[in-house]
Amino acid sequence: MRMRIFTILALTLFCGALALYGQEVVVPITPSDGSAALMINVQIAADTVGRGFSADRVYEFKRGEIYLQNATLTVPAGQTIRFKASEGDGPLPVIYLWPTGTGSNPTRPPGWSITLAGSHAVIKDVCMVGVYEYEPTAVDNMQGGLIQTNAVGGSIELDNVILSNTNGNHVRTNNSTIKVIAKNCIFANMGNLVTSNFGAGKAFDLRDVQCDSFVVQNCTFVNSQDRPIRHWNATSTQPILYGKIDHNTFVNGMGFHGLLSLGGVGREMIITNNLFIDAFALGEDSTDATRGAEWANTGEIYANGLNKITWIFTSPNDTTKWKVSNNYFTISDSGQAFLDAFHFGPANPLSDHIQSKLGAAAATAFTKIDLTPVNVPKLMTRLMRWYEDPAGGNKTKDKTNYVRARDDYDRRFVEYFRDTLNVAYPTTLPAYVGGEKGFPVGDLRWFPDQKALWEEIVDATPIASARIDADGDFNADRKGQIVTVVGVITTPNFRPSGSQYWMQDETGGINLYASNIVKELKIGDVVKVTGKIDQYRGLVEIVPTSADDMQIIRSDVPVTPRPVTKADFVEANESILVQLSRYRLVDPNTWPLAGKWANCLITNGVDTINVYVGAATNMPGQPAPEGWFNLVGVMEQFTSATPANTGYEIRPRSLDDFQIITAVENKDSNLPIEYALAQNYPNPFNPTTTIRFATPENGVVKIQVYDLLGKVVATLHDGKLAAGHHQFTFSGASVPSGIYFYRVESANFNSVKKMMLVK
């Protein structure tokens, strides 16, 4: 009998949650009245004179108020500048860059809003705008950017921030950075209104420098004149070491240099669950020589010699791990009309290199859908047509001969992005359940209920990482560590006096075991579990210490078993819900009696696999499954071997997991329902005859011909034979006339028939 003796050690857990601002000292900033004394840079300078930007200072801006800034805030090396909105509800406060000049022709605002000199910025719940847009002429005097780094070692963290109205880049890193992280943000109105410099107009310009971590999640990018994200120079050797672009919405862009130009990527790049709504205008560029001349070739060239520009591209690096999946896009009628008018070819979102890295997964990296946004700016087709029109040489950078109405860009005041922008879409669209774990694609801020659920799981450890065995010794590397995983429950509780379930995510499966903690979970529950990684008889487990460590996030998520064969019973698939096709019990007498458990062997005629029938199920005491069946269950492990690389078996959950194959199903599949050896034809024969044989299962089969003395005169087959109908030809040309016998032997069948050769 299988028994477990499990000692629960008393654990003292220290859980410290690091708040975004730690032990903060809040310094309120007074709203602006236009006077020099209330410019926010003046107020902050007054607070920081003689002390620098200390890590515990947080500058608080009152919700619904307006603030002006007329000098750059330069943060010294090693210091941190922190902004946040006041507590409570209400519109986000707005920080405008204010022109330094006077009269009817003021100068541009004074440089960047924030410059980081090897320092850090942590900004939450505010709006930052590159021009005071209520001034009639101000739109022509936008600042080139808002936040920049100009020394090595800085970092930028943005959370629920709106950045709008710059003619260059909202965020730019001029030196290698530790991290650039943006979550729940809106990046709007990016680009130059008065020139044709289509190299400007980016949300992020990482400027060919190294970034250890670049994470953009749950953000919306709207009105982008160039690439929303840029880290490109063909000669750059400074990579993004780790990048994640996930659950973002890109809407209304031109993208004349591509969409995501990621340059060098070092270790890993993840681009998942994003939504692109008229976020490009080019697809693949096969015509524009000017734009081609700006692009350093990476080996992707059209037959006409011009460079191929895709939505997502990078410099080739064969060591980079890529994941690009669950992305959706849509093209409006006006966008498609533009593509057709200027003969852009079919849009291929991925560069050749990324496609090669993804392999077969490249085909499903992007899915096209029909989607009509309700309240978003329109595509900038007038501007794009002007740029594409070859007449007049207007494609050269820095031309100033194009004058357009202000709304030609469909530029909006920041209030629109604060209060009115809505990029939600009908829940009936496939994109609504198209993201990982069934969540919507795009920025989840447009689906707050779904966002709240998603936030419960986003920071969890993938199950494959929790059970990782990097050195291949069949011992979990993280044994003894406390981790948090999220997965869907695939089994009922197998331990009435405690909890024993199996759970899995898209990366792997794991056993959830608590010997004396009862937690009611059901198949299809998505559960967040915190516990210690352990291992019992080779089986990797997560062991929570209380019922509160097992939180139900959502329910009724469908679980589909993975089709497998005997060859798939390996460590990588341990604890995954699987399905075996066309097996039968080797010995029905091994089926357990009521209240008992049993190990029962099953076979498909070639392979033999152990089935563990648990006592705490509805199977013991019931009639053993008869005939052929398909079997669903979790692939588990039970072994005392060292290393623990044996003992893989299947554990069904109930009798319903034995799906009996009926005679009708066999007929429909053209497979025989039983063994059959037919009489040879013709008989008598001279010199050849046909022998027909039917087998309902895969297996090793030997077919031989004997003479009257029992001597083998021919072996027609000796080896594996698939289930089905087969025929073999015997020639008696080299043997004398007489009586012969043909015999078929397999593990489950043995038959002999007689035939006559007449010459």
Report the major sheet.
Answer: 10 strands, parallel
Overall, the morphology is elongated
How much of the sequence lies in strands comes to: 25-35%
Q: Uncertain segments of ≥5 residues (pLDDT<50)?
A: 1-22, 283-287, 290-299, 392-398
Polypeptide structure, described:
By secondary structure, the chain is mostly beta strands. A hairpin with a 5-residue loop joins β44 and β45. Helices cover 9% and strands 35% of the residues. The longest helix has 10 residues, at 448-457. It has 4 domains: 25-451, Pectate Lyase C-like (3 Solenoid); 472-553, OB fold (Dihydrolipoamide Acetyltransferase, E2P); 562-661, OB fold (Dihydrolipoamide Acetyltransferase, E2P), CATH 2.40.50.140; 669-757, Sandwich (Immunoglobulin-like), CATH 2.60.40. Residues 1-22, 283-287, 290-299 and 392-398 have low confidence and may be disordered. Strands 1-2-5-8-11-14-17-20-23-26 form a 10-stranded parallel beta sheet, covered by helices on one side. It has a 10-stranded parallel beta sheet with strand order 3-6-9-12-15-18-21-24-27-28. Strands 4-7-10-13-16-19-22-25 form an 8-stranded parallel beta sheet.
